[in-house]
OB-fold protein (Micromonospora echinospora), 441 residues
Amino acid sequence: MGIADVSGYVPAYRLDDYLTRETASSPDVSVPGPDEDAFTLMWASLTGLPRAEAEGPVLLRVPDSDIETRALVAHARATGVLGEPAAVVPLAPDAGVPDLLALATRLAQPGLGLLVDHRRPAGAGVPATASAAAAVRFGPPRVARVAAVATRHTLTFDRWRTGPAPDQQDARFVEEALVAVEGDALLAELLKSAGRTAADLAGVVVTCGARLRGARWARRWEVPAVWQAGGGAGGPGASAAHALLTALDRLCAAGPDGAVAILDLGWGGGGAVLTAGTDAAEDTAKPAASAATTARDTKAYGLAAWHGRATEAPGPWTSPAELWREMPALLGPVGYRCSDCGGIGFPRAGVCELCGSFEVTDQPLRRTGVVATHSVDHLFDASDPVQMVVVDLDGGGRFFGQAVRDVPRRLVVGDRVRLVLRRLHTASGLPHYFWKVDLDG
Ligand SMILES: [Zn+2]
């Protein structure tokens, strides 16, 4: 079993100067936009994978999510990015890449792995960890082979029982105990199990609770490079999607003979060695992970709601029954086609809006199109007025909805746009997802 396909999504928002100071973060940390959450990151990563009608088991790790696993899967199914899963296996919020790979390599049939890093800072002064999502289809090793997986379970507390437990975020503790003790042993075990030496590695991707001095560890382990994905903060598993995407990126750059190790260190830790897949031998220039990642120009935005500076108006009413009844068609999105006049409309209706005919059938709609018209509501009490857009969809039908909150500029008539899934609002405690309009490309 190996990695057959991979697709990643890295939000391209950036913290502004004020928030960089507030959260003690570096300005290049990617954080989700105001209307992106764990599910929308996961959904965006899934859109880059080839479609499958039926999936094997889906191994899913979504931290800090207030939406149930089964609801996540239902939403992904309704939008067509996920086939019918054989089973859904939720992983612990701190599960890292080695945990996912260890499970995947023991699957009896090819499955799907979904890792989401959605970790908005808990408050002012808490460092932000970069967010990302990775979708992996396990099967023939086209992208990478899993050459070795190892775990190390350590009774670390015993060493410290005469004093208070050390802070796992403390950089000195992380470097001197976790990385030096567990990292060394784990890496040696992995290399032995993979039948490789440190000289074979293009580098090591490390996830732990602190920012490491990469050059120092590269010298110690005698490897060309040590990378930390996602800014280093947050602890084991915090940057799992970032770590996997980084490892596959570097593996791709290393070429047909390449190998990359991943270490996920907490109390003990897990690790894996990935070697180049079969595609690397055929086309070394083929990007593995980076091609599917979306990037946008640096843009600052305010986490006003997170800071408690914005107040949310009471949301609209919703209910599970309403979601059950309406969402499959709205999320499809599915409109209607009139067999009398040939018109296509959205949302789905029992009567044609154009000619009044009752001869209408369901019509799946495309998610790309051109802006027909738009408006910006300055009367509604909002610090950042939302642009409302009408889109003539490719293949027919009109969509009316909001522009995404982080669109780089106001949309204008004639813009090529695409529909992206976003959290619209939370009502009656239920997250409500719908399409918004974003610039295409
Ligand atoms: Zn009609």
